[in-house]
Write a structure and sequence with these properties.
Oligomer: single chain
Number of strands: 9
Largest sheet: 7 strands, mixed
Length: 588
């Protein structure tokens, strides 16, 4: 049985070389006391918690699942104890404001923690994954008295939140929701209605659960403009049980240790967060954080898949490899990692996982700059880039998490299809991430129509500036020149494609919707190229004997030789979307 190992060497490479985060922290008053040694210590402790506490209960949690009875949910054995250890370690407070009991560390360190949590135990991490988004939502939109009452508990981990959006008739289209809120005389509201697919809507990890619920107020406008956000605790301040009830849990394909609940609100007492009818603006603070975390789920699945496939391929012997290294003694069969078909799969698993890590942490780093950069213009630029990159990260990472898990399972052959190896659970667990927190199709539409066409391509121009800046830096480095030149070509093609998309969209309103998915994948490939162009340049600066130098350059070669050609096919797909699609089925 393979054992997950926290990829600390590559995490440190990304933070210290690719991002040069410690140098940036020194320029940000909020993080000036954070140095490389402290960051490494935090990451080592995070890795220890994930591998020693969470990984051992991943398989057992999947097989046992959650148990529902009499309106309550019992999580798998060990989940509650693991949560107590998580709280005792101070992990909920990692990236929260010290004013509310947080540790005030950068979100990029929290991103590394989240990657490891999801790689080790996705189902367990579902209970904690929404907490930081809820903290941000209340911090930015809740009245001060509600902040004082509930923020310390979220930061300490004493309470866990849930996000209640979906209803039977209202999935991606939240404008169809019916859950109603009526004002009470004391300034609170009475909430009545039903929600489903609520992760962590009921559990036994904490006594209280804070539900953030989308509702309609009386005389609210139709559609999404008539939605308000309420905070509805499971327990009221006086110690009374609120009118929130769990009617059951879903029986799912994966993440079986995560309680996915159907909730019923019967005149439950709640309080308005943000402005009346402005619930989506408040909720999107939470959802954007959640979408980053879901992207990191894809990264966690990719890393776990890579490690599992690599370890198995080193052990499993089948046939003679056509080109054997001299170090391999003559035998009837070789480890399958020597066979070209397996080498290609394993290299793709490695380079995509490590490339995703660089881009995922880059987005988290932009969020840190958006909050704490010294100059207002720096903060605004960082905010624009983080918002632009989030849908790309969510959609492309989750798709890669599933695709790479499937490719890793192929390395195991028939054994991968059995419960004996963890890869079959990784494959099942990874599939949901492409659906929730806004399906990947929604993310593609959000990227192209809202984030790019919606602002005339300004934020996209900032992204191209970042990619071109890397290309220019690489062109003056003899060892990195090859990669930089190709990256520059990618930038030119992206800019021309956007101009073409804008031209066609002006006379065909549906075209951006047809092209959105392929355009997002085009951007994802460009970001992979960017990640490895910079990784190669950073690797050239390492000592010649450093094994990371050789590995990174080999990986960059693989990306530019084997994976970059996909950019041309994705480019062709965006152009092909200019042709209309036929309607399927009868028209009435």
């Amino acid at each position: 049985m393979q054992q997950y190992k926290a990829p600390l060497d590559d995490i440190q490479f990304v933070l210290e070389h690719w991002l040069q985060a410690p140098a940036t922290w020194q320029q940000m008053p909020t993080f000036q006391d954070l140095d490389t040694d402290l960051a490494r210590q935090v990451l080592e402790e995070a890795g220890r918690f994930c591998t020693q506490v969470l990984a051992p209960i991943n398989t057992s949690g999947d097989r046992q699942g959650c148990h529902y009875a009499d309106g309550g949910v019992r999580t798998p054995d060990g989940f509650a104890a693991a949560y107590r250890a998580y709280v005792d370690g101070g992990w909920p407070a990692l990236a929260c404001d010290p004013a509310w009991g947080g540790q005030g560390l950068p979100q990029v360190l929290d991103a590394a923690l989240q990657e490891m949590l999801y790689a080790c135990n996705h189902a367990w991490a579902m209970y904690t994954g929404i907490a930081h988004g809820a903290y941000l939502c209340l911090k930015h939109h809740a009245p001060q008295w509600l902040q004082a009452l509930y923020l310390p508990g979220i930061v300490s981990g004493e309470v866990l939140p849930s996000m209640c959006l979906t209803e039977p008739q209202a999935g991606s289209d939240v404008g169809l929701l019916r859950c109603a809120a009526l004002p009470r005389t004391d300034g609170s509201y009475s909430i009545t209605g039903s929600k489903l697919f609520i992760s962590g809507g009921e559990h036994d990890l904490t006594h209280d659960i804070l539900h953030l619920v989308l509702v309609r107020l009386p005389e609210a406008p139709v559609g999404s403009r008539g939605i308000s956000l309420m905070l509805v605790p499971k327990w009221l301040e006086q110690g009374e049980r609120n009118g929130v009830y769990c009617d059951g849990i879903e029986h799912k394909m994966g993440i079986k240790g995560s309680a996915t609940c159907a909730l019923r609100f019967e005149q439950a007492q709640g309080w308005l967060i943000g402005e009346a009818h402005g619930g989506l603006a408040a909720m999107f603070v939470m959802m954007n954080s959640a979408r980053l975390h879901v992207g990191l789920q894809g990264l966690g699945h990719a890393e776990a898949s890579w490690q599992s496939a690599r370890d198995y391929a080193l052990e499993r012997r089948q046939m003679r490899a056509p080109k054997r290294p001299d170090s391999i003694l003559a035998s009837a069969a070789d480890p399958i990692h020597l066979h070209p078909a397996m080498r290609r799969v394993l290299l793709e698993l490695r380079v995509r996982s490590q490339g995703m890590r660089a881009i995922g942490y880059w987005v988290a780093h932009w969020l840190d700059l958006a909050d704490a950069a010294a100059q207002p213009e720096q903060r605004q630029r960082a905010k624009q880039l983080a918002q632009l990159l989030t849908p790309i990260l969510k959609a492309s990472f989750t798709e890669q998490g599933f695709t790479l898990a499937s490719k890793a399972l192929q390395v195991f052959g028939g054994y991968g299809y059995t419960e004996e190896f963890a890869i079959e659970q990784t494959l099942r667990d990874s599939r949901i991430a492409m659906i929730y927190e806004g399906s990947n199709e929604i993310q593609a539409n959000d990227l192209l129509l809202r984030k790019i066409l919606g602002d005339g391509g300004k934020a996209f121009g900032l992204l191209l500036d970042e990619l071109r800046e890397e290309a220019v830096a690489g062109l003056v480095d003899e060892g990195a020149k090859r990669y930089a030149g190709r990256l520059l070509q990618v930038c030119t093609a992206l800019e021309a494609t956007l101009t073409d998309v804008q031209r066609v969209a002006a006379c065909d309103a549906e075209y951006p919707y047809r092209a959105a998915a392929d355009f997002l994948q085009l951007c994802a490939t460009a970001l992979l190229v960017f990640a490895w162009a910079r990784a190669a340049r950073c690797a050239m600066a390492l000592e010649p004997g450093n094994p990371q130098r050789k590995e990174k350059l080999e990986s960059a070669d693989f990306v530019f030789d084997y994976l970059l050609p996909a950019f041309d096919s994705q480019l062709a797909a965006v152009q092909a979307a200019q042709a209309s699609l036929a309607f399927i089925g009868s028209q009435t």
